[in-house]
Design goal:
The protein is mainly alpha-helical and about 625 residues long. The protein is built from 37 helices and no strands. Keywords: Repeat.
Length: about 625
């Protein structure tokens, strides 16, 4: 049978004409073209098995067929399989090389990508852009710049890629210098600057650039609207939106999000109703806006009205139930989902924060889903809260197996988990494995040392962090003050507390004042603690009053203790522990009548102290 007839027979078998990419093709369309389209379509849907089946069934492949298969594997993150196909291509063209190069770059395999790049004899601008984009995506902005400068010919995409790269890493001045250097500034290059300014919050710089643009497209107007929105200038955004000569669904959605972002739900809903055409992104944005503003019922109503739903739609409503701690309905909704993704499982795991979260994690594995950063950080956090060290170590093994041991966020979660479970040595080992430590990683280790009472080690860690060029935040100082409180370092505690505002421009929060009050109380400096409390610009959290009351009892300052207890009971009239502690204070002073009165109040309010229980 001739090849063409074999292909036609095969096409009939796989019924490719049912796919959108193959519709409207005449019966005379080249069958090989249809098969190539089928491979592309299957890979885009994530059905790489069927894509490969189609590929293998084609008796005589052209270079386009091979390229479609390489791109399919790359699209689905199967870089090893892509390389096997690439190596087997009988006559590679520039598209083959570029597809493989992009695959390596997207997977962070920059060395392999660069080796391949150097082997290309006749590099076109697409090859150069792919390599530069790979460097930018993986944080190698200096290498990207070197390659950019070495390009023999640059197009608009080249300039856009490197400008966006500088904005991504906060290097606004470098982005501006490059923009000024561009001899021919297309609308794409202008839009890259506008979008960068919008993300960085440079509202006026963005508007000045927008005004002088020789030509604007819909994306230009939309970027400027987004910039005003990010700066909280909703009215200016609306005014610009009304001036737009032409609006597409993205512009409408951006304006709607501006209202949602600034809490103007009614205005957003009105604009949503006025939209001439709503795509699924617009629907999802409106639903998500309702969820973020606590209007789950409105979100559910919109969800039911949607002409078509995707996983994002389902996940938004699921998130709404979880935010309201309605895990019963969240579970029902989760079970009803026609298709789940990693985000769906992560939302449920975060919602439970209990043993059920660990069970869900196992089910996620069994269902064939691959945990991501969000999954690991949530599950590891649960292990820490529940102090289930065995589970934590098992999850740590999964982290290594899947390849997240270089992820700073995941490793920081492991530091906190091991610390909570009492294994400071393992926490320190996890911290040492973090190569690129950010403020979250340092805070995790500082807090770990603090809660284990290692004040000297905590302060040494803090000094190392400062020498490394990082600036502390509120969490850092909370760890430092906790460490000082546990070790009774009053002078050092005051020194660190005062440095927050003086050296780092950080305004202390109630938690920081609570640490100081706790330290003064533990040290018997009750008068100083009470004077500080009277002068506080913020309200102390309840646990700080409880700590002060406990210190009053230990140091037998009953007058202050009585005042603190009554103050706390005025705020928390159902705090059983405070009634019991106040009764004990009266009993310690021999005031049996007052102690009996407090016990009678407890009985009258039908309050009962819960019995203690052990983790063992």
């Amino acid at each position: 049978m001739p090849v063409r007839h074999k292909l036609k027979s095969f096409i009939g078998f796989v019924d490719v004409r049912n796919f959108p990419v193959c519709r409207n093709l005449s019966s005379n369309t080249n069958p090989l073209y249809i098969c190539n389209a089928r491979i592309t379509r299957c890979s885009k849907l994530g059905d790489i098995v069927n894509a490969r089946r189609v590929f293998d069934e084609i008796p005589h492949k052209n270079v386009v067929t091979w390229n479609c298969m390489i791109s399919g594997y790359v699209r689905n993150g199967m870089i090893r399989e892509a390389r096997e196909v690439f190596d087997a291509v009988p006559g590679r063209n520039i598209v083959s090389w570029t597809a493989m190069l992009s695959g390596y770059a997207k997977c962070g395999m920059l060395e392999e990508a660069r080796v391949l790049f150097e082997k290309i004899d006749s590099k076109n601008v697409v090859c150069w852009n792919s390599m530069i984009s790979g460097y930018v995506r993986n944080g190698e902005i200096r290498e990207a710049r070197k390659l950019f400068e070495a390009m023999p010919v640059k197009n608009s995409v080249s300039w856009v890629t490197i400008i966006e790269g500088y904005f991504r890493y906060g290097l606004v001045s470098e982005a501006k210098k490059l923009f000024d250097r561009a001899s021919k500034k297309s609308v794409l290059v202008y839009n890259a600057m506008l979008a960068g300014y919008a993300e960085m919050g440079y509202v006026e710089d963005s508007y000045e650039l927008f005004v002088i643009m020789p030509q604007r497209d819909v994306a230009s107007w939309t970027s400027m609207i987004k910039c005003f929105s990010n700066g909280g200038q909703v009215e200016r955004a609306r005014s610009l939106f009304q001036e737009m000569p032409e609006k597409d669904v993205v512009a409408w959605t951006t304006m709607m999000r501006a209202y949602l972002q600034n809490g103007r739900i009614a205005d957003a809903r009105e604009l949503f109703n006025e939209m001439p055409h709503k795509d699924i992104v617009a629907w999802n944005s409106m639903i998500d806006g309702c969820i973020q503003n606590g209007r789950v019922e409105d979100a559910l109503e919109l969800f039911m009205q949607m002409p078509r739903r995707d996983t994002v739609s389902w996940n938004s409503v699921l998130q709404g139930y979880v935010q309201q701690d309605d895990m019963i309905n969240a579970c029902k909704f989760f079970e009803a989902m026609p298709q789940k993704d990693e985000t769906s499982w992560n939302i449920m795991i975060v919602g439970y924060q209990s043993e059920k979260a660990l069970v869900l994690y196992v089910h996620m594995w069994q269902s064939g889903f691959k945990p991501d950063q969000g999954t690991f950080t949530s599950v590891i956090s649960v292990c820490g809260v529940l102090s289930v060290h065995g589970w934590g170590r098992a999850v740590h093994l999964h982290v290594i197996k899947i390849g997240y041991e270089n992820d700073t966020m995941v490793m920081s979660s492991l530091v906190s988990m091991y610390s909570r479970c009492g294994f400071l040595k393992y926490a320190a080992a996890a911290f040492e494995r973090i190569t690129d430590r950010d403020i979250v990683a340092w805070n995790a280790m500082i807090v770990a040392q603090a809660y284990h009472g290692s004040a000297v080690d905590t302060l040494n860690l803090f000094s190392s962090m400062i020498r490394g060029g990082l600036e502390p935040d509120h969490v850092t100082f909370l760890g430092l003050l906790t460490a000082c409180a546990h070790s009774g370092l009053v002078d050092e505690s005051w020194k660190q507390f005062n440095s927050m505002k003086m050296n780092w421009n950080l305004t202390p929060k109630p938690e920081h004042y609570a640490c100081i009050v706790d330290l003064l109380g533990r040290s018997g400096l009750l008068a100083e603690a009470f004077e500080l409390v009277k002068q506080l610009p913020v309200d102390l959290p309840a646990h700080a009053w409880e700590s002060l009351l406990s210190s009053c009892r230990v140091h037998e300052n009953f007058e202050l203790g009585e005042f603190v207890a009554l103050k706390l009971l005025s705020v928390q009239p159902c705090n059983v522990g405070m009634y019991v502690l106040l009764s004990n204070i009266y009993a310690s002073r021999g005031l049996w009548k007052e102690a009996a009165h407090i016990r009678a109040v407890l009985k009258q309010l039908q309050l009962k102290k819960e019995l203690a229980c052990s983790w063992i």
